[in-house]
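Hey, quick one: can you model this chain's 3D structure?
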Amino acid sequence: MRKWMIAAALMAASFSDSQAQGVELSYGLKGGYGRSTMRAPRRADITNVSGYYTFNSEFYLDIAFTEHFSIQPGLGVTGRGAKINVLQEEASTTTTFYKYQSNPIYLELPVNFIAKIPIGDIFDKCNVILGGGPYVAYGIAGKQKLSGKFLGKSFSSEDNITFSNDDQPVNSNNFYGEIKKFDFGLNAIAGVEYHWVTLNIGYAYGAVNINPGANLTPIDRMKNRSWYGSVGVKF
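Sure thing. Here's the predicted structure for all 235 residues.
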């Protein structure tokens, strides 16, 4: 957590430094909803991977170097997750199958590079925004649910997600029970700024394997993927 406090302090320092250099600076808040999924292990027993609907929120700085270009470092809390089916659920003939639902929550630090295209001839003080950039995320909370049948007997459970960077032997728990603490990836963003209101859609592409298993082959790796939308205000 100390690292994230340092990151927040650096954001505040950049705020002051930018003002001193005459760069136009503002800040904003945004939040919304999205559909997250995972690039799950590609094993024969995994029959389906589907999305999980979750939230996103962020405080950000808008450091405008010109009227048409700015950098937006931020700090937010974002949900990720997916639903994973192991073995096929079929009518009454299936005696064993599992359904995993994982919903990790991350503290996220994105840095986006934003191009602003004015459309003032149509609307006053209105910009189309396009951009993207890297993000780093740290797991802070989350829930996991397990349900299904084992030899015809139904079961279900719910527990907190365990975040760990320890290498472990690969087993069924690796793709739902434990997740690595750190994630890293790229964001792509598009949207509209109208006066002090912002509307955004985006895609987050996780580039890091979050499966804590040891000696993983490519088919065992897990990576976050997420579409999201948000509404915000600028100050």
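One thing worth noting: The chain is about 10% helix and 60% strand.
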